[in-house]
Automatic annotation (TrEMBL):
Record-given protein name: XRE family transcriptional regulator
All residue ranges annotated as the HTH cro/C1-type domain in the record: 12-48
GO molecular function terms listed in the Swiss-Prot or TrEMBL record: DNA binding
InterPro entries for this protein: Cro/C1-type_HTH, Lambda_DNA-bd_dom_sf
Pfam families: HTH_3
Record CDD domains: HTH_XRE
Length: 75
């Protein structure tokens, strides 16, 4: 698992922990499936850019820092 994926998985878990909500609750808030949130937290998938924006906006509304910074391939 890449560092990028691990960092994202940790960020999602941190959001849920801070808000004391379940994967199902977060899924409902973000309009994704429970399985999607579960795969994110287990490092099996990553969201697309649009979903990343939704997550960031969700965190902003809840006064949380979204501490995930995607890697860039700039050289």
């Amino acid at each position: 698992m890449s560092r990028n994926v691990m960092d994202f998985a940790k960020a999602i878990l941190n959001i849920r922990t801070a808000l004391r909500i379940s994967q199902q609750d977060l899924a409902a808030e973000l309009d994704v499936s429970y399985a999607t949130v579960n795969r994110w937290e287990n490092g099996r998938t990553m969201p697309n850019k649009m979903t990343l924006s939704v997550i960031k906006n969700y965190c902003t509304r809840h006064h949380l820092e979204f501490d995930y910074k995607p890697e860039t391939n700039a050289q």
